[in-house]
Write a structure and sequence with these properties.
Elements: H1 10-20, H2 26-35, H3 38-41, H4 46-49, E1 59-61, E2 68-73, E3 76-84, H5 86-91, H6 93-109, E4 114-124, H7 130-150, E5 154-161, E6 170-180, E7 194-200, H8 210-213, H9 234-249, E8 255-258, H10 263-275, E9 278-282, H11 295-300, E10 306-312, H12 316-325, E11 329-337, E12 341-346, E13 349-355, H13 356-359, H14 376-380, H15 394-401, H16 410-413, E14 424-426, E15 434-437, E16 444-451, H17 453-458, H18 460-478, E17 481-490, H19 497-516, E18 521-527, E19 540-549, E20 566-570, H20 581-587, H21 599-614, E21 620-623, H22 628-640, E22 644-646, H23 654-659, E23 666-670, H24 675-681, E24 687-693, E25 697-700, E26 704-707, H25 708-716
Parallel strand pairs: 4-5, 9-12, 17-18, 22-25
Antiparallel strand pairs: 1-2, 2-3, 3-6, 4-6, 7-10, 7-11, 8-10, 9-11, 12-13, 14-15, 15-16, 16-19, 17-19, 20-23, 20-24, 21-23, 22-24, 25-26
Helix pairs in contact: 6-7, 7-9, 18-19, 18-21, 22-25
Length: 718
């Protein structure tokens, strides 16, 4: 076999031969081709990822484990991570999305955490095309078809439509879990003389080389890729969750790793390398569901619902009895040894003998070139005068809130079980964030998910910073102090210098915002080569931020203003139309340059927003995001069922003020007896009283007049 058939580049193959001091055999070559793929090695992005701040006062575990963990007090931790399942979902929407959910749940489980909530970031193509309808329908059914029976509620997410995702939809699955901080399981604690146990489903040929498949451009004929797709069984996963948690409670697990990309090889070699030990794996002991499987197939199978754990040999019989109780296959398939050798035996034959530390690391960096896109000046060539101003903005608001990106996504979330486990305080719908109870504690956990591809396309640095800031603003307004972030970096090929520049600048912008707002990155995922021969996706970083609400009294909800409440607008009066939903509605393509990131203003906003929520100074609050101020006002009217009448005495072109995006801004509904203290809290920050809540219409003198009932029907597509 030629090294290129295994997915290795010439320089990678030469480095492998030099390290081994010999030619690798075919099985070793296939393993290294997958383990040094982009999906497993992060070879293109490791230097960039080092820019993210990873330490903070609440960080218990940062990057390097199966997921990150933050401390929420009282001995409790929240484990969380987001991962992509883009290529599989493009070629087999239902199973691709379903196994994405299953995989991220096992990442959380691997730390000894009970999975308590899922979110999903979905990016679909032209909504008018039948192809998009078929893909989106299959993906959403797959998420619900796995998440519902496995018993983990889907509590929120992000859905975004743009023609760039028509051939390459994105599915980013996020999961949160609850763990006692003194019961965390690590993948770095294996010792020589311990047993390697495989627990869960039998191993088959599904998903073989799936990691390598995720590291290349999609072919135009996606049917040819379907053998790479894994098949999931949520009912087995539910049993696996309970079995692993029982084993943890009884102190039987030394170390644990889920079997995701690259299957047994990835999970076992990662534990060995992280623990500083070697391993011998016995493939004739692996429970198989298909006959005649070659060692390389067993090594790289991505069959679902499997966990690899390290246990003391003296506890093996106890582990087996618990596996039998939960009707799961279990087998000792290896042992931990001294040194750095990773050995696979098929019967008495050694088929793989590689350094454990080599397998998951040491891949030569590609050192991709980076160059500023030649059309950047043309992208930025935009003046608001390009959009003719019309005083009557009512038709524009109607069009925006009925657009696929801004209207209600009930058709999606009604397919998900949001309330299983009974911990969901706020779920999907007209909420800025999702909020969860933690059993045995008065504290609540808030989580927000955001992405802003149009702005990242125009200016990846500013767009990346805005993406992070937008997620943190929503948490702060709700009263949640940000504790940590996970992200999924979805991009096309890094081999094109202009595209690698976009990726690099996005990360720099995100890192700058994380540093300024003290929000460390504790986990994440990179997904590259999201393109076909005819189309590439927009640069699409997605972030999930977890925050802490100290108690329910300090939580500020949105969409619940009452008659007579005073409506305040906080924030600058000159947002940007560049890359906004309004501009896309008017022009059909993003143009201009988004607002520059202002770290001081963002920090100031977060502190004041947290103070507002914690002191109970407002009845309702909403961070301003997609669709601008007008969209935020409309959503408040829709949820509360109450209108507002106002004048806008602000010297800014009214469509810019109402539909512009970017920067730290929010609207609040404040009861009369809280106005003085509310104003005091926001003193020194731009603040305007817009109106009083009341009536049956959203009315802005000279510019907008629409009944609340009509807004509700338009947004809900009734």
């Amino acid at each position: 076999m030629h090294y290129s058939e295994a997915g290795l580049r010439e320089n990678e193959y030469k480095a492998l031969v030099e390290t081994l001091g010999r030619e690798p055999n075919e099985c070793e070559l296939l393993i290294m081709g997958v383990m040094w793929s982009e999906h497993c090695s992060y070879k293109s992005t490791k230097p960039l990822l080092s820019l993210f701040p990873t330490e903070g006062k609440s960080v218990v575990l940062g990057p390097g484990e199966n997921a990150g963990i933050v401390d929420i007090g009282d001995g409790n931790g929240i484990a969380f991570k987001v991962e992509s399942h883009n290529h599989p979902s493009a070629v087999a929407p239902f199973q691709g999305a379903a196994t994405g959910v299953g995989g991220i749940i096992r990442d959380i489980l691997a730390l000894g955490a009970r999975p308590i909530a899922s979110l999903d970031g979905l990016f679909f193509g032209d909504p008018e095309l039948q192809k998009t309808k078929n893909l989106s329908d299959g993906i959403v059914r797959g998420i619900g078809g796995y998440g519902n029976p496995v018993g983990v509620p889907t509590v929120g997410g992000k859905t975004f439509y743009d023609k760039s995702y028509t051939d390459n939809p994105l599915v980013n699955a996020m999961c949160l879990g609850h763990v006692k901080l003194d019961q965390i399981i690590s993948s770095q604690t294996a010792l020589p003389g311990q047993a390697v146990v495989l627990l869960g489903s039998k191993t088959g040929r599904d998903g073989i080389a799936g990691a390598a498949f995720a590291s290349i451009e999609l072919s135009e004929d996606t049917k040819s890729s379907r053998p790479n797709i894994q098949i999931g069984d949520p009912f087995v996963e539910k049993l696996l969750i309970e079995a692993c948690l029982e084993l943890k409670e009884k102190g039987l697990i030394v170390s644990m790793q889920d079997m995701g990309a690259a299957g047994i090889t990835s999970s076992s070699s990662e534990i060995a390398a992280k623990s500083g030990v070697g391993m011998i794996m016995y493939f004739d002991r692996v429970p198989l569901r298909e006959t005649g499987m070659e060692p390389w197939e067993i090594a790289l199978s991505e069959s679902q619902e499997r966990m690899l754990m390290i246990v003391e040999f003296e506890n093996v019989s106890h582990v087996m009895s618990i596996a039998e109780k939960w009707d799961l296959d279990a087998a000792v398939i290896g042992e931990v040894i001294e040194g750095n050798d990773y050995i696979i035996k098929d019967g008495e034959t050694i088929v793989v003998d590689l350094p454990a530390t080599l397998i998951g690391s040491d891949c030569p960096s590609p050192d991709w070139e980076s160059s500023v896109p030649s059309d950047l000046a043309e992208k930025w060539n935009f003046s608001v005068e390009n959009i003719p101003f019309n005083n009557d903005l009512t038709p524009d608001l109607r069009d925006l809130i009925s657009s696929p990106n801004l209207r209600e996504k009930k058709w999606i979330y009604e397919q998900y079980d949001q309330m299983v486990q009974l911990n969901t305080v706020t779920g999907p719908g007209n909420n800025d964030i999702s909020v969860l109870r933690i059993k045995g504690s008065e504290k609540l956990v808030g989580v927000s998910m955001e992405s802003d591809p149009w702005k990242c396309y125009l200016d990846p640095y500013r767009g990346g910073a805005e993406t992070v800031a937008r997620s943190i603003r929503a948490l702060a307004v709700a009263g949640a102090e940000p504790l940590g972030m996970t992200n999924c970096l979805n991009y096309p090929s890094p081999e094109i210098p202009e595209q690698f520049w976009e990726l690099s600048e996005s990360v720099k912008g995100m890192a700058a915002c994380c540093s300024e707002l003290d929000c460390p990155v504790v986990s994440g995922n990179v997904s590259l080569y999201n393109e076909t021969a005819s189309q590439r996706i927009l640069p699409t970083p997605l972030v999930g931020v977890v925050g802490l609400i100290r108690n329910e009294k300090e939580m500020l909800r949105c969409g619940c203003w009452k008659e007579g409440d005073h409506i305040f607008y906080v924030g600058l009066s000159d947002p940007s139309l560049s890359g906004s939903h309004y501009q896309m509605h008017k022009m059909g393509s993003p143009k201009g340059r988004p607002l520059i990131f202002n770290g001081q203003a963002e920090s100031d906003f977060v502190a004041r927003a947290l103070g507002t929520a914690r002191k109970g100074l407002a009845r309702s609050g909403r961070a301003i995001a997609g669709g601008g101020l007008a969209s935020a006002l409309a959503k408040e009217c829709i949820s509360s069922g109450i209108g507002a009448e106002m004048k806008l005495n602000i010297p800014t072109r009214k469509d810019i003020l109402l539909f512009g995006e970017g920067g730290p801004r929010a609207i609040y509904a404040v009861p009369s007896d809280k106005i003085v203290e509310f104003r005091h809290t926001w003193r020194g920050f731009p603040i305007v009283m817009l109106a009083k809540a009341g009536g049956k219409s959203l009315y802005i003198e000279g510019h907008l007049n629409i009944k609340v009932e009509e807004l509700q029907k338009i947004w809900r597509q009734e």
